[in-house]
Design goal:
Strands 1, 16, 17, 18, 19, 20, 21, 22 and 23 form a nine-stranded mixed beta sheet that branches. The longest helix is centred in the middle third of the chain and has 9 residues. This protein is 7% helix and 55% strand. The protein has one domain: Apyrase (Neuraminidase), CATH 2.120.10.
């Protein structure tokens, strides 16, 4: 399989994109150093924002690293007639990043009713579970949903401990109503991901389409789980029944593209042909909106 960039454009006014979700005629994007939920049309044009939390940073400015909730994962949940986006903090710094913002997107043209949920008890349990974090720091970088489960992806770019934690959806929704109680039980799967230039790939984006998990895994030149580094590239892969089916490095002009993909959304799947869109995190400059073909 080859993953080829077929189009890319700069997302003016949007930096550090960290997750992507399509709902109806819109793409929603969160940023790891912004207080806004961004809404794009299907061509990637910014058409609106929703404030998730109050921040001293002015619009367009980055929230300082020491104080940001580090929203790195997002998924859409349909439950009891309502559709919501869940925007998750990474959990890499307690309690600042132990948070989830719930946004009602039943009408995606008019997001509303933003609610803040503390995930401290759940993330504390994750930190204590070696099957989830291995020997490294908790750093959740992606989320996705199946019909009956929430999936949370631990980035294992240092230890190689890339895991997917699966929680039954009903149990998770019940927990959100009483987040100080005992967290729900979980099932954990571990995946070995490849390298670029002797640096490990780590989960950085995920989505579910037609019962398959599609994911991105980014590679940076860094010696720890938290600090950014030079971008070496990204992979796109697919998981079926807890088994890695294929993985392909993202290319442009027959070379590995030095992009850090942090959000993906499937457009079309036909046999061994996949079309998707992605957003990148540049860490310093504006993010990009990519169109990728896998064949």
């Amino acid at each position: 399989m080859r993953a080829l960039i077929r189009g890319r454009r700069v997302l003016g006014g949007l930096h550090s994109a960290s997750s992507l979700e399509r709902i109806g005629d819109f793409y929603f994007v969160v940023s790891d150093d912004s207080s806004e939920l961004y809404r794009l049309d299907l061509q990637g044009n910014l058409v609106g924002t929703t404030r998730l939390f109050e921040s001293p940073a002015a619009p367009g400015e980055r929230i300082p690293k020491k104080s940001k909730p580090d929203l790195e994962a997002m998924c859409c949940v349909e439950w009891k007639g309502k559709r919501e986006l869940f925007c998750f903090g990474s959990g890499s710094k307690a309690p600042t990043r132990d948070v989830c913002y719930r946004v009602d997107v039943t009408n995606p043209a008019s997001p509303q009713n933003v609610r803040t949920i503390s995930l401290s008890a759940l993330y504390h349990a994750f930190r204590a579970a070696r099957e989830i974090v291995g020997t490294q720091t908790l750093n959740l970088e992606a989320a996705a949903t199946t019909q009956d489960a929430i999936l949370l992806f631990q980035r294992g770019n240092i230890s190689g401990h890339n895991t997917v934690t699966q929680i039954e959806l009903g149990a998770f929704m019940k927990y959100l109503d009483a987040p100080n109680e005992m967290p729900p039980s979980a099932r954990v799967s571990h995946y070995e991901l490849p390298y670029i230039k002797n640096r490990r790939a780590g989960f950085s984006a995920a989505t579910v389409f037609d019962h398959s998990i599609y994911f991105a895994a980014a590679v940076e030149d860094t010696d720890n789980e938290i600090d950014d580094g030079a971008k070496f590239g990204s992979f796109i892969g697919r998981i079926d029944a807890n088994k890695l089916q294929w993985i392909a490095v993202v290319e442009q002009d027959d070379e590995i593209a030095a992009v850090k993909i942090e959000g993906i959304a499937i457009q079309n799947v036909r046999a061994n042909h996949v079309e998707l869109v992605a957003v990148t995190d540049d860490d310093e400059g504006p993010s990009e909106f990519l169109r990728i073909e896998i064949q």
